Structure prediction request, 250 residues.
Amino acid sequence: MRTKTPEEIEIMRQAGAMLAEILNKLGEMVAPGISGREISDYALAEVKKKKMQPVLIGFQGYPDVMCISVNDGIVHGIPTSIPFKEGDIVKLDLTLGYKSLVVDSAITVVAGNAENKDVKRLIEGTKRSLMAGIDAIKGDGTRVGDIGAAVQKVLDDNKLGIIRDLVGHGVGYGIHEDPNIPNYGVAGTGPALMSGMTIAVEPMASLGDWQIDIAKDGWTVMMADGSLSAHFEHTVLITDNGVEILTQEN
Prediction:
C-alpha cells in the first residue's frame, strides 16, 4: 500500500493516456471476422511504437501482450486466430509498463450489433458500476468497502451476477499490489486508501451466477454456468479530496 511520488504519478498519468489511446483503437477493431490474434498483434506494434513495455508477456508464464476473453470467458483469455462472430462479447484487458511503472485498463465491446436487451443490460450495467465505484472514492481515507458497496449496488440493480473470486487491486510498482478491491462490500469497512495510492477498479459481472472455472488452456477464467460476462477497468489515483482516472485519453 505504498503511495506514489509526484514524479511517479506523472509517469503513470502519461502511461495511462497512452494505454487508453491504444485500447480505444483496439475496441474499434472488434468486428465479425476479426480475430483476437490480429488485435493482439496490432496492440504489440503500438506498444513498441510508444516505447512502453508489454509486461504481461512472461508474467507467471502468460504468453501474450494482452488478455482477450470472449462470451463466457471473463478474464485472462489468450488471443487466438478464431474470428469473432456477430454478437460475440469481447473483453480487452491491457496492462502496460512505462518507465518502470504499470497501468491497467479493460473494456468490453460487442462484435457487430448489440441488439439483445440482456447483453445491453450486462455491458451498460457493468460499465456504470465501474463509474459508480470510482465516484465513491472521496479522497484520502476512503475505505475499500465504499468502492465495493457502490459497485455492488449498480450490479444488483441490473440483476447481474457479481464475480466474487476476482477483484480489483493496487497497481503501479507491479501488476498486482495490495490492497484487493472487491466488487461487493459494506461502505465504511475495509482498508483505508491514502492520497497518492493508485488502484485498479475493475467490476466483472455476468448474466448468470458468480461461480467461475479455469479453461483447459490453464488461463482463461470462464463462467461455470456458461453465462455471458463483462469486464471494465480503470487505473485511478487517490487524491487528497477525490480521485483521478489515469487510464483515459487526454
